[in-house]
Amino acid sequence: MPITVTDQTVLQQLPAALERKKFLTKDFKGLEYYHAIDDWKHIPRGTAVFGEQVVFGYPHIGRVLALEAGLKAHFQAPFWAEEKINGFNVRIARIGDKIVALTRGGFICPFTTDRLPDLMPLEIFQKEPGIIVCAEVAGPDNPYLESYPPFVKTDIQLFVFDLMAVGKPGFFPYEEKLTLLEKYSLPSVPRFGRFEIENVEAIRHLILDLHQKWHEGIVFKEDSERDHRAKYVTGNSNIDDIRAAADNLMELPPEYFTNRLLRLALFLEENGLTASATMKQDLGGAFLDGLHRAVEHYRREHRVYTTFRCRFREKENAELMLNHLKRASRRIKIVQRDLHQEEGHWLLEFDRIYPHLTGMLGDLLSGRMIFD
Amino acid sequence: MPITVTDQTVLQQLPAALERKKFLTKDFKGLEYYHAIDDWKHIPRGTAVFGEQVVFGYPHIGRVLALEAGLKAHFQAPFWAEEKINGFNVRIARIGDKIVALTRGGFICPFTTDRLPDLMPLEIFQKEPGIIVCAEVAGPDNPYLESYPPFVKTDIQLFVFDLMAVGKPGFFPYEEKLTLLEKYSLPSVPRFGRFEIENVEAIRHLILDLHQKWHEGIVFKEDSERDHRAKYVTGNSNIDDIRAAADNLMELPPEYFTNRLLRLALFLEENGLTASATMKQDLGGAFLDGLHRAVEHYRREHRVYTTFRCRFREKENAELMLNHLKRASRRIKIVQRDLHQEEGHWLLEFDRIYPHLTGMLGDLLSGRMIFD
Description:
2 copies of one chain form a homodimer. The first copy, chain A, is an alpha+beta fold. Chain A is 36% helix and 27% strand. Among the domains of chain A are: 61-82 and 194-233, 2-Layer Sandwich (Dna Ligase, domain 1); 235-298, Methane Monooxygenase Hydroxylase, Chain G, domain 1 (Up-down Bundle). Chain A contains 11 helices and 17 strands. The first copy, chain A, has a 4-stranded antiparallel β-sheet. A 4-stranded antiparallel β-sheet of chain A has the order 11-6-12-13. The mean pLDDT of chain A is 95.
């Protein structure tokens, strides 16, 4: 049996947690709060405390690399299948008169919080006090990730996948979630329905379709009290990850790449596919195109970077976001390019400069000799 | 000025080195010797001591990743260019009445030692006592490496690139080497001649030709007292390395792969090439084909392995080689497949089993859930 932590446990542990720097104190426009920077004493990472209100962290969902064996090993009852969206996870909650979006780490995201009125109807927070909307924010114009789903062509979109309640770990039952999503017209992740464990072929059909469309994958949620979950990604989603990370090759742990290669190989094998010429070309290109861009950047400007842009409703939030990113990235340097009004929003553009690859290319291109 | 270590220094240090396990004691068919398992107090790794005779380790040659900048940064005088052969480095010396081949680590290689009469004329060891022949052993049938030069179609060949003397660090002068190689009909690495530093375009032409033929690269040796050296590899040689290592993905440090990708990207950029569709396909295939093989092996036999084979003149040497490999590989398991006589040689076949990838595939294919 998992140990259940209540909001009272969290509030009792808070002073000790703050002293041991397991929770940090933060402030968002005068709203003071605390957030758990790591799992600690059964309190999940990302748990945030606003006065007496506890917003529990979003739990980790395990990944299986073999679809059929994974489903059979982990599910004891029928399960729901939902599309996994390639974005960043937020929990949206009403705190006093503010509605805020928390990142996975429990930090109030100035970007998502700013854009909430563009992303979803907010009525639910008036009618259902204490609700937490769990969703993925995805699209080309986001401040965190280089990759995004192919079906979000501009800006960002929100995809809701769970509901929680302030003060309680765990999720709303599936049927109740469906009712509330419909009642409040919340934008949902695509849902594929309810499956029996024996029905693997239907799921395989689904995942191959997502793979061909370069979508990310599926999250499975058991239709039972224990609400057991697992995720499984498509082959192409691994190539997409590699492509997005290639010009950042030296900052990431190299396992980032080898793990994705292994996932891709297992995907192909399980589905009876052999790597086509096109897939090999996509994979090789995912590595080489990003590195080519990095070397070109270095030659031209003596730094390797990626440019991000995102839109804000309020200028102040754009500035808060930039400051947050600057403070949060110890190794990666954040430099503002531009902040100007455009079509009703403030458009922020900034670069993420990769110092390790920048320094390495500087050395290597000047002819440095290495001994390996 | 580099500190020069003499054979007397090595002999004086030997008791202390043995006590601190910097040198290990070995025995090859009754011939007792000691070898330095790492660089220590200016004694290079691989230095071997037979009684009073010291065979110095082969020094590290630095690698440049930018050809033109590297040559300009490191060479002060014209230099010789020789082909870099994709094999393993041996130093061949006469010790008493035995002629032995030492690996880079200073261990007597039972395989190379056994095959010496097939690989080169041995007359030089009668006429030039105290000579050490430094060479690369390369070909499909070698016990150490999965990759080999495309121009060695069967078995192995020897390619001599340096001469040393017992008791002395450093190499014979280039012209003297040429004279001795010719006098004793020693099989040489391909030599491309002597170049001025300004003559980069000729070298670039050479390296692009080697790249297109999937050869490994060039070693540059300054034509001067200090005999400064550097190596530079072709773009395709990186793809070849990745292909040879892919089914061993989880045993190698992941930097093995990211470093080679970076070398390839720099090769393309410096030579004004963009990655062609064929190259991308080669690179993607280098990763995926090996992993595919690994997963297939696992499904069929519940282990991931590579089969090696090599020929011996004497059965005893095959057995010594296998025992050496078994003892030397802590993580990788060596299992004999076959040892039988064939066309005048003893043909040894053995598998190198990769336990990490084997265990990982066992877990993942049974549906194990991972949290990342």
